[in-house]
Each structure stands twice: as C-alpha cells, then as structure tokens.
Amino acid sequence: MKVRAAVKRLCRFCKVVKRRGIVFVKCTANAKHKKRQGFSTIAEAAAVSCVHLPPPPPASCSASAATFAEDSNGGGLARDGGGATAGERNQREKGREGTNLAPEASREVHEDGKDTEEQSHCSPSWSSEGMKKFSNWPTVPQLYCKGELLGGCDIVIAMHDSGELKDVFEEHNIPLKPQGSKNEEAGQPESSTEKGGAVAEPIGLTDAQKARLESLINYSPVMVFIKGTPEEPRCGFSGKLVHILKQENIPFSSFDILSDDEVRQGLKVLSNWPSYPQLYIKGELVGGSDIVMEMHKSGELKKVLSEKGVIPKESLEDRLKSLVSSAPVMLLMKGTPDAPRCGFSSKVVNALKKKGVSFGSFDILSDEEVRQGLKTYSNWPTFPQLYYKSELIVGM
C-alpha cells in the first residue's frame, strides 16, 4: 500500500507513514521538520505541502487521496469521524492493558517507516473513558467491524472460538489472511460449530432446562460459571475472575461449564451472554472477566455485593483504607492518567511516568463521598494526593 499517494506536494526526501490510525508526514532533508504533525484523516494529510521544497512531487506521487482511502478500507479497518480505528487485535496479545496511546508513543511509532495495513489504533485525542461513553460499553479493548461494535475481549474470544467472528468478517467482505490451524490454541470450539464453523441459531429452552439453569444460578449468592475449577482454571479469563474474588475475600461457588455442554450452551441463551466466565450475584448476571475487573478497580464490585447483602456494608473509613492501599503507589486524582482533569493531576502523572513508577489511580470526581471523605481521612484539603504503602507522601 502506498501511503505516500495520499499526499500530493512532497519532495523526494519526504516520508509519509500510516501508523496506528494516524498519517505522519516528515521531511528527512531538514532536521527541523523531521517530526511533522500527525493527521487523523486522509483529507488533512492530502492538503499538506512540504515546507522544504516548493516544487510539486513527481507524477508517481500525485495520486488522489481516494486511492489511499480505498486501500486502507481494503484492510478491513472501520473508522469513525475522529479518525479512530477498530484494529485492536494485538492488545489482547499484549496483556489486554488498554487501547490508549500516549501522545509520545504515537509520535515514536512512525520512525521505523513501516506501513500497517491490518492493525491500527485510536488517535491520542481518544481516551478510554471517551470510548466507553461513545460506545456505551464499560470496558476496553473494544472491537469494531465497519463501524459497528462487536464487543470486548470476552465476547470477541468467544466469537473466535465458535467461528462466528470469521463469519462476521466474511459477511462484511473483509479479506482474511491465512493463519494456519491456530484456532485450537485459543480454546475449544463450541460443539454446535465444530463441523461447519458457523454459529447455530439460538434455540428455545425447555421448562426443565430453564429450571435447572436457574437452580444453578441461584445455588449460591455469588456464583461463577468458569472453564475448569477455582483451583485449576482452564482459561486465563476464568483464572483472573477467580483471583479477583479471592483477593476480595468474597465467598463463592463455581460450576465447570466444560463438564456439561448442555449447561454451557443453555446458559448463553438464558443470560443472552455469549462467553465465559460469567459472574452472578443473587441470581443476576454481572458480566464476564472484563466487566468484573473494571468493577473491581473502581470499587463498584464491593459496592454491589454490599447493596445485595452478600458482604457487610463497608464504613466510609474502611472503604478509604481499602482504596489507598489498593496499590503500593496510589494516586487520588481528578480524572484518569490518560485524561487528567486538572493541571496538578497531570503534572503528578507525568512525573510518575517519567520515572517509570507503576501506580494505581482513582478518579475522585466519580465519587463525591470519597472525595470529601479523603480530605478528612488524610487531613489534607486538596487533590491530587499520592500515597505510598497507604501513607500520604504528596498533596497539592
């Protein structure tokens, strides 16, 4: 793919690189302009001219921007109006640690000069919080196909295991690269799709099946349906969910869905949730590992459990103690590390990142009770507040 074709007025020293959803332009003949602005849309890039040499580029570089747009769409990437793209497959391979790129990272990735046709990432202007509001989906990563949200990691993996993900791409005329026989490594295919790879249409449940599933769901106040057992999980996501529950000292019961395919398939229909693990509290579906992990980080999980009477309701002081000790280095700030909501919070975040310090964070704007309680708890009236091993070390 010739990304250069999108930009008309360039000298022979200019480079145009499409990387992670951004079109970068730089002129290697002039050190001052080695790093040029990234453009989030084709139209913006096509309007640029090299500041080093005024003459127009050779004819080979004067193709229209439409050529570039057609090539990029051929790679199966869906873009929204802000230039964000849907290629987040490699985030799962990197530990599912989020989809945002800091501005510094976005500026560096184009230096290698390699084009990317299949995978792309949100522009720095997008934050994970913004994507959650935009999509009305509570976690990241998020996978989009031709502008339509397919779901988070749990759902995409389940679709991959069952063959449905491939069907969706084929329906949208998205070409797929031969990957060999790697499907077996990701997980066992569902029994209904082993032969043809297509997902069977949901079938209705009999009264007996519904009664059995509802009995299992309500077997314990906190019930998890996982692959394997709590002692020996058979998939990473089941292991993460079990770890969270154990870390919070939450009593729970479990069911191994690999031991009973009728339960495995039937629960997807009953709960209208296509993947595992699944967490239920007092008979109500909470979600998969992505959602539970997000609730755990925000403190929402304990709040739900206490509201439903599963665990004693925490006092504000106990909640604050738990919050400031949730990470060795804990920052109570306005906003998030990706999108600080005040200058002081931004300064502390940048200082920690510059030093390579790993830290947890909590947005005090999301919980007024915590915001006011911390002022008394720490005897410090302003934010941000930085704690090390539960003790306040920096306040602003």
Automatic annotation (TrEMBL):
Chain ranges of the Glutaredoxin domain: 222-286, 329-393
Domain of life, source organism: Eukaryota
Pfam families found in the cross-reference section: Glutaredoxin, Ribosomal_L36
Keywords: Iron, Iron-sulfur, Metal-binding, Ribonucleoprotein, Ribosomal protein
Keyword Lipoprotein: no
InterPro entries attached to this UniProt entry: Glutaredoxin, GRX_PICOT-like, Monothiol_GRX-rel, Ribosomal_bL36, Ribosomal_bL36_sp, Thioredoxin-like_sf
Biased composition, class Gly residues, residue ranges: 73-85
GO biological process, one term: translation
PROSITE patterns linked to this entry: GLUTAREDOXIN_2 (PS51354)
Location of region: Disordered: 72-133, 175-198
Gene Ontology, cellular component aspect: ribonucleoprotein complex; ribosome
The protein's role, per its UniProt record: May only reduce GSH-thiol disulfides, but not protein disulfides.
Family: Belongs to the glutaredoxin family. CGFS subfamily.
Entry protein name: Ribosomal protein
Provenance organism: Zea mays (Maize)
